[in-house]
Amino acid sequence: KGDRVVIGGSWDGKVYMWDISDANPVRVLTGHPAPVKKIASFETRHGKSLVSGCNNGELWVWDLKRFTVIHKVQAHLETVCHLKIHGGILMSSGKDTSNGRKSSSVKIWDRDMKSVDEVQTGQEFVNKIFVFQNRFLVTASTQAVEVWDKDSNKTVVEKRQNNDIVVSVTPLNSDTLLVAKSREVKMIRYVNKKMFLLKSLHKFRMQMGYPPVIVKYIFETLMGNNVQEKSSS
């Protein structure tokens, strides 16, 4: 029956649940003090739950068995822009303030709705977040698409140019991002620099007839002992 239910937030601060066979809502969740902008469902220790984010930066977690609120969190200073569930973990993006200017941050929450990690993006309105290759955090706004590694270092893979804006970004496959802009669509491929170098060296070795040990020696000489993998287009 859950597959037949459509859930949506509303400008009146309510969350509406409709059965697709009925034009009338089967359940209305009330209480938000501001318009509900984003919703997502996920599993908590209470079972199937729903999280709703509104314009005042609050996140509410609802127990869908009892239809009661089990958590209320002031997640961001202003609008909750996006919610994403990855591996049962909730991530949210919302408007905050960094160094005296408004920007979006991405926060990762544990099962008790305590923030366990945070990324300050510097972008004003991050409207999409997701995990790529189970290791990179991708954030997108109308200005740019950025890829963050585990050390919170970022690589800008696409920026707004002239009057062009970034509309959306989505994984095309395991190593390619599809970026839609107002004037064009781009496919941006992730290249693991270490693997690319190793393959190139092995190909060169085979062509020249060198022994396999030469690859290890050249690789360690070029890369050194302290190497951090970065994303590259």
Can you give a write-up of this model?
The chain has 233 residues and is mainly beta. 12% of the residues lie in helices and 50% in strands. A four-stranded antiparallel β-sheet has the order 4-5-6-7, with no helix packed on it. A four-stranded antiparallel β-sheet has the order 8-9-10-11, with no helix packed on it. Strands 12-13-14-15 form a four-stranded antiparallel β-sheet, with no helix packed on it. A hairpin with a 2-residue loop joins strand 4 and strand 5. Helix 1 runs antiparallel to helix 2. The model is unreliable at 225-233 (pLDDT under 50).
How many DSSP helices? 2
Q: What's the oligomerization state?
A: single chain
Residue ranges: pLDDT <50 for 5 or more in a row?
225-233
Average of per-residue pLDDT values: 82
Largest sheet: 4 strands, antiparallel
Number of beta strands: 18
Structural class: mainly beta
Q: What sort of overall outline do the alpha carbons produce when their principal axes are compared?
A: elongated
β-strand percent reads: over 45%
Query: Taking Cα atoms only, what radius of gyration do you get, to the nearest Å?
Result: 22 Å
The N- and C-terminal alpha carbons lie at a distance of 43 Å
What is the strand arrangement across the widest sheet?
A: 4-5-6-7
Report the order of strands and helices. Answer: EEEEEEEEEEEEEEEEEEHH
What share of the residues lie within helices?
10-25%
